[in-house]
């Protein structure tokens, strides 16, 4: 599996997307106490590490899967943040 295939498969992983949406909702509820960036960063790293560690073995090394997963998580979180910002601006 090439890196681009791995990246695209992680971008389209519904479980990963669901975890990151739940992370974002949790951040919204607790941002007064914990801020925005530290919980999102910690959650993105956690999801990037836990998913390849618990899934079946693939043809790529674990560290490589984690790093590509971190990049995929950052892209997904950027899309979620952009959608939330757009929603806030349209709402008024």
Could you give a short description of this structure?
By secondary structure, the chain is mainly alpha-helical.
Give your account of this protein's structure:
Helix content is 85%, strand content 0%. The protein has 92 residues and is mostly helical. The longest helix is centred in the C-terminal third of the chain and has 30 residues, at 62-91. The radius of gyration is 14 Å and the shape is elongated. The model has no long low-confidence stretch (mean pLDDT 93).
Task: Give the SSE map.
Layout: H1 3-11, H2 14-34, H3 37-54, H4 62-91
The total strand number stands at 0
Unreliable stretches (pLDDT < 50, length at least 5) are none
> What global shape is seen?
elongated
Strand content: under 5%
Cα distance spanning the termini: 45 Å
User: How are helices and strands ordered from N to C?
Assistant: HHHH
Rg, Å, rounded: 14 Å
Distinct helical segment count = 4
Q: Determine the fraction of residues in helical runs and give it as a percent range.
A: over 70%
Major sheet: size, sense and barrel closure? none
Structure classification: mainly alpha
The overall pLDDT average reads: 93
Provide key terms for this protein.
single chain, 92 residues, mainly alpha, elongated
């Amino acid at each position: 599996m090439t890196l681009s295939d791995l990246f695209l498969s992680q971008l389209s992983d519904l479980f990963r997307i669901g975890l990151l949406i739940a992370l974002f909702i949790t951040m919204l509820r607790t941002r007064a106490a914990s801020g925005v960036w530290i919980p999102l960063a910690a959650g993105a790293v956690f999801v990037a590490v836990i998913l390849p560690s618990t899934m079946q073995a693939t043809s790529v090394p674990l560290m490589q899967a984690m790093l590509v997963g971190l990049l995929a998580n950052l892209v997904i979180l950027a899309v979620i943040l952009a959608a939330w910002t757009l929603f806030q601006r349209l709402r008024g």
